[in-house]
Amino acid sequence: MLKSMNKMNDQNLPSHVMADLNAGFIMTDLDDGFQRCLKSSETVFIYRCDVNDEVHEETIDTDKIDHDEAICGFYDSVDEVRELYGDSALMIIAECYFENNCPAQLPTS
Question: What domain range is 69 assigned to?
């Protein structure tokens, strides 16, 4: 899920995405609408992705979601996520939640 941005050419990114990255967001999925995350607190994460030329944003408090439901379709158990990602497990759980709830398309006007 997490992808390194170290070798990426910044010129390939839209300016609003670069602004987010400069503001502290990290790119979590380059191939899926420039999905990015900002850690707001130990349990709260702000996720954004571009869908149909619009930015979809969701603030996820991992204390307020069902972790097992959040990871459904990505991992077999929360323990697996903790084993694989250690201190980043809550961010990954939030990312799974976001991806499970992010609309495939935002309505167009």
Answer: 10-101
